[in-house]
Amino acid sequence: MPRDPRQIQLEIDAARESLAATLDQLADRSSPQRLKAKGQAAVQHFLQTPAGMAAAGALGLLVTLVLVQKVRHRKD
């Protein structure tokens, strides 16, 4: 039984709209601004955990030691 051309066109239009909506969602999810904000939120969340605080403290200590070494070597 042959299909009605109008029904076929309606199905094509519905598929096109669905594809357009999917592409819009993908574009929104992969936008640089959204990815940047998501990354910043993840880092802020990590830094509020005990492990994150310890890592930040260790990094601060390492930077301080390197700067002290550079200052000491300048005097020599």
TrEMBL record:
Q: Give UniProt keywords alphabetically.
A: Membrane, Transmembrane, Transmembrane helix
InterPro entries associated with the record: DUF3618
Q: What is this protein called?
A: DUF3618 domain-containing protein
Q: Which residue windows are transmembrane per the record?
A: 51-68
UniProt keyword Transmembrane, yes or no: yes
**Domain of life where this protein originates:** Bacteria
